[in-house]
Amino acid sequence: MSAAPVYGLLLSGGASQRMQRDKAQLTYAGEPQLLRAWRALSAVTDRAFVSVRETQRDDPLRAGLPQLVDTYDAVGPVAGILSAQDAHPDAAWLVIACDLPRLDEATLRSLLTQRDPSKEATAFTSRFDELPEPLCAIWEPASHARLKQRYDSGSYCPRKALIQGDILLLPAPGAALDNVNTPEEFVRMQHQLERQS
């Protein structure tokens, strides 16, 4: 049996409460983070989509990109993942968060090269706690049943679904998955990336 095609899902529907502004619009080296992430994701997948809440559909930054609107309550990333799986149930989904400014095309290609389609998911380990990182992972069609069952029972944490699942866990890719959640972290990351560019 051939492996499912891999579609890309860029999660951009979060409320960004700690940041106090939309993390997708934060600018690094002169470009909004959403577009930086989109460029890397669309370069390595057969098709790619931006995951949005209904209220974000017409946002100028998101409106020009192919969208998948959440069809589940706003309960975090799992709403976007399940909505994508429902829309294209025969696809595997390379899911990334939009708050990973160090994530690049090479890291995504490494994840895809090491993918095991016989598992529920292929994920990197977090360099901070050695647990699976759900927001830069390939979710195979087989993961849908577990995610949906957990959602129906009121459990919305995609990391716990990976912990419980039959997954391939890869070593952390250095600092590529470091995220940015607060204004202070944003300023630090901006300076770091500008020094590198």
Automatic annotation (TrEMBL):
GO terms for MF: GTP binding; metal ion binding; nucleotidyltransferase activity
UniProt domain MobA-like NTP transferase: residue ranges: 8-149
Taxonomic superkingdom: Bacteria
Pfam families: NTP_transf_3
Keywords, comma-separated and alphabetical: Cytoplasm, GTP-binding, Magnesium, Metal-binding, Molybdenum cofactor biosynthesis, Nucleotide-binding, Transferase
Spans through the membrane: none
Name of the featured protein: MobA-like NTP transferase domain-containing protein
Originating species: Dyella thiooxydans
